Amino acid sequence: MSTPDGPPWRPTAALFRATLLGGLGAFAAVLWHRPDVLVLATPMLVVATWSWVRRPHTPLEVRTRLGHQTLREGEATTMRAVLSVPRGVDDVVIQVSPSLFAQLDPPLGIQVVGSREVNADRSASASVVVRSTRWGIRAVAEVQYAAWSEWGAFRQGPVSVDPVLLTTLPLPATFTPSAPLPPPEGLVGPHRSARIGSGSEFDTLRPFQPGDRLRRIRWPVSLRTGVLHVSSTYGDEDALVVIVVDAFSDLGPREGIDGRPTSLDVTVRAAAAIAEHHLAVGDRVGLRVVGSADIPRVPVGTGRPHLRRVLGVLARIRPATERRDDGERAIAGIGAGALVFVLSPLVDPGMVDVVARLGARGLTVVVVDTMPDHLWTGQEDVYASLAWRIRRLSRGEDVARLTGAGVPVVPWKGPGSLDLVLRELSRRARAPRMARR
C-alpha cells in the first residue's frame, strides 16, 4: 500500500521560537547598543534562515508491503516500508501499531530512519517482523509515519497508511488415523474396496476364467492341481469425504496459537487436519460451513491445490454471522456414498437438527465434538462454572439423542481420535444386511 498525497510541511514550534527569539534579540541589540545580545541572537537567526532555505518542498512518500501475504498460524513475515525521501529531511519515524493476534519485532514497532540511511537515489527502507497467532483474514497493522526537516524546523505528519490484509491459514492439528474407512465408492484410491478388482490386497484363489490376466496365474497351485488357478484381489478405491463445520459459536478466550483454543479454533484446526490427511492419500474432499455468512461451498476435489482452497475458505469463517442458517443449503447434494464428518461443539440446537437430518438420509455420519475441556475445568467464577455444568447436562441429552439415532459422537483428541469409530463403521458396513427379494 502507498500513501496518498501527504499533508504539507508545517513549521514547528522550534522554528517559531528560534525566529522570535533571534528577531527580538537582534532588535534589542540594535535598540540598546548591546553587541553581546547580538552575539546570542545571531545563531538562532542563522538556524532559522537556514531552515527556511533548506525546507523540503515535496511530501514524503511511503509504500508498505508484506513479504508473504499468506501464512500459517504461528508463522511470521516482514512488513517493509519503502520511503521516497525528499531533500532536506533529517529524520523519519515509522510506527507499526499491532492489531489483534499480531506480534511485532521490535515489540513497539518503531523504526527511525536518519539522513545517513538514505540512499543516493533518495530512497530508504525500514522493516518490522509481524507474527500472526490466529487464523483469519484481517488487517495486520496500521502504519503511521512522521518526518522532520533539518534542525526540526518543519514537520510532516503523523500520517496513516492504509493497513495491509494478511491471510492466516489454520494450522492443521496432528491427525494420523490407522483405522480403515467404511467401504468407499470411488474409482481409484488407497482404500480396499468391498468388490473384487485389480488391487493389491489378496482375496482368494480360484480357477482361471477367460479375461483373467496372465500375471495373476499361480503356477505352483496350477501344477499341483492340474488346473490353472489365479489369485483374485480386492479393488483399490478412493473415499468421498465431506466436512461440515459448525460456525454458530466461538466459545472460550481467544488467545491464539500460543494459548488455549476456543471451540471454533478446535473446529477449524481439526477440519484442516482431516482435509489434509485425506487429500494427501488421494481421497476426494468437500467442505460445507454452517452459521457463517458469505462462505461458499467447496466442491469435492483432490490434490494440494484443493487443500489450499479448503484452508482459504476456513480462514474466511466469521462466527455467528448467519444465525438464520438452517444448514439445508450446506448439506444439500451430498452423495449417498460419502463419509460425512460434522465438527461441532454441539451447543446450537440447529446444528443438532442438521446432524439428525444427515443421519436420517442414510449417510455415514461421524460427529466430532470440538468443545475444549478447559471450558468445563478452567472456570474460576462460581456462577460461570455452574452455568457450564448446566449447559453440559443439556449437551449430554443432545449427544444421547444422536447416539440413539445411530450417529456416533467422538471428542477430538488429536491423533487416533477417530480410529475406534471408523473401525466400527467399517465393520458395520461389511456386515450382512437384510434386504427385500
Q: Report the oligomer.
A: single chain
Structural class: alpha+beta
Q: Quote the beta fraction.
A: 25-35%
**Helicity, in percent?**
25-40%
**Global shape:** elongated
Helix count equals 10
Distance between the termini: 70 Å
Whole-number radius of gyration? 34 Å
Mean pLDDT: 82
Strand numbers in spatial order across the main sheet:
18-17-16-19-20-21
- Please report the total strand number as a whole number: 21
Largest sheet: 6 strands, mixed
Low-confidence stretches: 186-195, 433-437
Layout: helices, strands, pairs:
Elements: E1 10-11, H1 13-32, H2 35-53, E2 61-66, E3 70-72, E4 76-84, E5 89-98, E6 102-105, E7 110-114, E8 123-132, E9 136-139, E10 141-149, E11 154-161, E12 165-169, E13 191-197, E14 201-207, H3 219-225, E15 229-237, E16 240-246, H4 263-280, E17 284-290, E18 298-301, H5 304-315, H6 328-331, E19 339-344, H7 349-360, E20 364-369, H8 374-377, H9 382-404, E21 409-411, H10 419-430
Parallel strand pairs: 3-12, 16-17, 16-19, 19-20, 20-21
Antiparallel strand pairs: 1-11, 2-4, 4-8, 5-7, 5-10, 6-8, 9-12, 10-11, 13-15, 14-15, 17-18
Helix pairs in contact: 1-2, 4-5
